[in-house]
Amino acid sequence: MPKSLFGRMILILVGGLLAGQMLSAAIQLVEREKSLSLIIWTQAAQGIAAYIRLLDATPPDQRERAASLLTGAPLQVAMGRKFSGPPIEGSDAADIETLIHGQVGEKRMVKLFSTGEIVPYYWPRNASFAVQTRLQDGEWVSFHYRRKISHIFPNRMLINLVTLLVVLMILSLVAVHWVTRPLNLLARAADELGKNINRPPLPEQGSTEMKRAARAFNTMQTRLLEYLQSRARIHAAMSHDLKTPITRLTLRAELLEDADLKAKFVKDLEEMDNMVTTSLNLMRGIGNGETPRPVDINALLGSIQDDQMEMGGDVAIQGEAKTTFLCKPQALKRALVNLVENAIKYGNKAVISVEEDAEFLRIRVRDNGPGIPEDKLDLVTEPFYRLETSRCRDTGGTGLGLAISKAIAELHGGGLSLVNHPAGGLVTTLTLPRT
Predict the structure, then answer these.
(1) What is the pLDDT of residues 61-80, one digit of tens each?
(2) How many CB atoms lie under 10 A from the CB of residue 96?
(3) Which CATH number goes with the domain that contains 425?
């Protein structure tokens, strides 16, 4: 059974049409067989009756010669009891006897024998049977009727049937495509909505049901936009309310005379500010307000490499993208920066490799650090989850970097995966679909 609605509707329609046409053709063939049989038997009965009357009027010593003269396709005539075979029984025998008696009279003895294929539906079918009867003076005469009928499935009927089926299949394909096209548009719109909440509304056209579905989809999009805008306003207020005290504390820390205490206060406040900022960014949804546009991935990676190397980081790039990529550039850069900074922080070096095909763009970042325990690989992308080695003040971290990168990948319809390299180090792969 096809998995798509289009395939299932085509299967049901074409299967139903095919079954209906085959049934109709079978009924027509049965009726045709009956009509042909009746015509053949009527012609045979008329011919036999005419020959019987002619032989009755012929002197006995001339009947053999008359029989040989009368013999010709499709009827053979012979004096005596010849052309015998298995007796014909059932409805076929009754029909033939009735037709012959109707021509030569009820009192005439008639015996019927099968000498060939008289059962319907052979290909081709031969109407072949023998009749033995007595003349008025009691002498036996035999008749062998053999006539070849055209194929049980005439070429014209076959051509008509195939032509009709082809036309109906084409019409079914067009009709089903016309009916399912709005569903495909709705599915595509739902997929695009996850990548771009600001996409144009779905046109409300088509059948009543599709208009209703499109209207409901547009209403849902409007409500989602209102919710996100409301959440953005709340987060903006939270950011102001949270950062204002941090700023005041930072200014007051500058007034401290004890240099060591002052440095500790400033460092703690910077950590708090970073934690608040990253937390709000994650809750706000990175890139939700950004419009996707074609981006030169090579240039984007080059700028990240330059920035990190200016700060003393070791970054190498392998491979390159052949085409531009439709994405939210600031969000994607944020995701890649997080991965590169993690690689430099925990592995001292980041190696970026780029792979692409017709469907996906894959950007891998590998470090040469200790890697991550296998049972923790799925956990480190959860918000605020940190390994024990990252909890000290030297390495810092809020446990949100990988979570943000994962959220950005999913915002683009892709994903983030982590594996330990066999030679050592961690490999993070950002997989992004092209459509």
Answers:
(1) 999 999 999 888 788 899 98
(2) 24
(3) 3.30.565.10
